[in-house]
Amino acid sequence: MASTTQTEIPPAPPGRRTRAKSTGRVGDKIFLGLSRGSGILLLVIMASIAAFLTYRAAIAISDDEGNFLTTFDWNPAGDPPVFGIAVLLFGTVVSSIIAMVIAVPIAVGIALFISHYAPRKLAGAIAYVIDLLAAVPSIVYGIWGALVLVPYLEGLNLWLDQFFGWTYIFEKTEIGVARSLFTVGILLAIMILPIVTSVSREVFLQVPRMNEEAALALGATRWEVIRLSVLPFGRSGVISASMLGLGRALGETMAVATVLSPNFLISLHVLNPGGGTFAQNIAAKFGEADAFGRDALIASGLVLFVLTLLVNGAARLIIARRKEYSGANA
Amino acid sequence: MAKRIDISGLSAFYGSHKAIDDISMTVEPRSVTAFIGPSGCGKSTFLRTLNRMHEVTPGGRVEGKVLLDDENLYGSNVDPVTVRRTVGMVFQRPNPFPTMSIFDNVAAGLRLNGSYRKNALADIVEKSLRGANLWNEVKDRLNKPGSGLSGGQQQRLCIARAIAVEPDVLLMDEPCSALDPISTLAIEDLIGELKERFTIVIVTHNMQQAARVSDRTAFFNLAAVGMPGKLIEIDETERIFSNPSVQATEDYISGRFG
């Protein structure tokens, strides 16, 4: 707190210390200018990124001989150039959904354990380790995924195929190592675990004491207190946390590019190797693409940008709709 | 069933700090007992030992005995969760479950117990809301969130929630201190009705309130800040306010305190 205050008020010039009161107004002006400038700068940067993306994307899409939204191919260097985002959109969404399905319940469980079950010292240690997971660079996750996770998951894949093959989703119809969307989903789950956990934990710690005591005094067990007071209060926070995680999962690049063996097919058999995501495709193709190929990749990046915006917007809507129940007006 | 509470040699601690020291008293069934005393004298802490809520505070610890009709609440095989189901509590600030409807708030305790017949639930909720003098105000909006009610209504909702499970004892921790005078009056009237069915213990900073609602009054005091609170005396309310046997009580009541 103290340090923020210090940065907000620029120190008076040394020679004018006796007139500290009048320089306060100058400080206000400087600070106003600085903060307003940062705000405007941010808008300018965002606008230029959007303009840049849209401009380059428009060039690429207008010369695309296939349908940009539905084509199962990525060949902007061909004659005629044919490329589309269908597979990338599918792969991005599916791998992120898998990551969310795995990560959110585990993260909420860890957050509840840290905030309401674990003894204080253990809670601190666990929180630290979880936060440490966030500090691992994504390329390290990628290498670990490719060298460790992929071979280890083959057993799990066989098991899933054998017992849950009837669900269609877990049916493995192609032979090959587990460089699949499912593996990517698991890897992404591990990567988004820290952010979802720590935001949820903060929210759970903020549950007002009196809300928990209301449940306790009725004879609620620890789990019932969580069900009656903690989870309802934390719901919107958990949604925000999940959306932060989802944002990371949608845009994750290096880890996915290292693990996935991409192809341009759409298959709901998530155990089959293949598929692709926006970020992975850009990372894999950008280096050897010509100018037009890069524009095509930028067009796909624009779609990812829009997708992320939509996800954030949806999250905001969900949170706003639940506001009257949030406990803030209790 | 209203039950008698017999407290003997009760001390409560926060970590190594002793908050209340060696309290013994009897709380009569079907009556209102008021706890009065200066801030920090431990009357709220003492109240919270009567339903084992004190020990949920980190470092909270209790020594001594609390007998509820001969059953020691601090017996080694007694589950505090069970204790809290038979000793209800109403807090200083109204705390309905914010995400629940009015109906669900009242039904929450019953659903925790699981000891009700499905088709009886609506009847119990109505009976409890009537018992809390709230039914006429909310009967048309039982499905609206409880947090949308006024403060006084919320507090009566909390009382309805507490009495829905038919507790043996009802503890009230300054239930009117966050309410306006009209809501306060409504709650005080309600306390007068509830004592026909429950044993009621109320902590209050308002001495007129203690004089109005209670049958017996206990005065707590502490020697100095940081010292444990003690029970100075407990007697018929009339006697405490007219002719107390301890000088400190008279000083406190007549405002000549500290």
UniProtKB/TrEMBL annotation, chain A:
InterPro entries assigned: MetI-like, Phosphate_PstC, Phosphate_Transport_Permease
Annotated region described as Disordered, given as residue ranges: 1-22
UniProt main location, coarse:
membrane
* Membrane topology, as annotated: Multi-pass membrane protein
Keyword list, A-Z: Cell membrane, Membrane, Phosphate transport, Transmembrane, Transmembrane helix, Transport
Q: Which PROSITE patterns match?
A: ABC_TM1
Q: Which CDD domains match?
A: TM_PBP2 (cd06261)
Q: Where are the transmembrane segments?
A: 39-61, 81-114, 126-153, 180-200, 296-319
Q: Where in the cell is it found?
A: Cell membrane
Q: Where is the ABC transmembrane type-1 domain?
A: 89-315
What does the record give as the function of this protein?
A: Part of the binding-protein-dependent transport system for phosphate; probably responsible for the translocation of the substrate across the membrane.
Task: Give the family this protein belongs to, as stated in its UniProt record.
Answer: Belongs to the binding-protein-dependent transport system permease family. CysTW subfamily.
**Name of the protein in its database record:** Phosphate transport system permease protein
UniProtKB/TrEMBL annotation, chain B:
Looking at the keywords, is Disulfide bond present?
Answer: no
Query: Which SMART domains does the record associate with it?
Result: AAA (SM00382)
PROSITE patterns xref list: ABC_TRANSPORTER_1, ABC_TRANSPORTER_2
Natural source organism: Streptomyces poriferorum
Instruction: Output this protein's name.
Output: Phosphate ABC transporter ATP-binding protein PstB
Q: Which UniProt keywords apply?
A: ATP-binding, Nucleotide-binding, Translocase, Transport
Q: Which GO terms label this protein's molecular function in UniProt?
A: ATP binding
Pinpoint the ABC transporter domain residues: 5-247
What taxonomic ancestry is recorded? Bacteria, Bacillati, Actinomycetota, Actinomycetes, Kitasatosporales
